[in-house]
Amino acid sequence: MHKTEETARAICALDLRARGVSDAEVPALVDRFWPVLANEIRQGIVEGSWPFSAQDIEALTQDYRRLLKARR
Predict the structure, then answer these.
(1) What is the pLDDT of residues 2-34, one digit of tens each?
(2) Residue 48 CB neighbour total at 10 angstroms
(3) pLDDT for 28-69, tens place per residue?
(4) Measuring CA to CA, which residue among 42, 72, 47, 69 is closest to residue 57?
(5) What predicted TM-score, i.e. pTM, was given to this entire model?
(6) How far apart are CA 36 and CA 58, in angstroms?
(7) DSSP run (H or E) holding 53
(8) What is the phi-psi region of residue 45: left when phi exceeds 0, alpha when psi lies from -120 to 50, beta otherwise?
(9) Which residues, 6 or more positions from 42, have their beta carbon under 8 angstroms from its beta carbon?
């Protein structure tokens, strides 16, 4: 899970910066939304513990998509 989290955080930061999110905002948003990217990476396969419920991921995914759409 550690490697997946690292990768998800890196991709999330890249996505946010590509949408014009300021460097000051990126760390807090990555902390909130990295599970969305990790869920996509893992594609339902769990190695170790996965502390997020399906409902958590669904809500975070919707919020993340709204954020990215608003930053176009």
Answers:
(1) 888 999 999 999 999 999 999 999 999 999 999
(2) 8
(3) 999 999 999 999 988 866 666 778 888 999 999 999 999 999
(4) 42
(5) 0.87
(6) 8
(7) none
(8) beta
(9) 4, 50
Q: Is 35 exposed, middle or buried (0-12, 13-18, 19+ CB in 10 A)?
A: buried
Query: What size, in residues, is the chain?
Result: 72
DSSP state of 71: T
Q: Are 15 and 67 in contact (CB under 8 A)?
A: no
From the list 55, 50, 8, 51, the residue with the least C-alpha distance to 33 is 8
Q: Are 39 and 57 in contact (CB under 8 A)?
A: yes
Q: Cβ distance 35 to 55 under 8 Å?
A: no
Angle at 46 between CA 56 and CA 4, to 5 degrees: 85
Q: Which residues contact 26 (CB under 8 A, 6 or more apart)?
A: 13, 16, 17
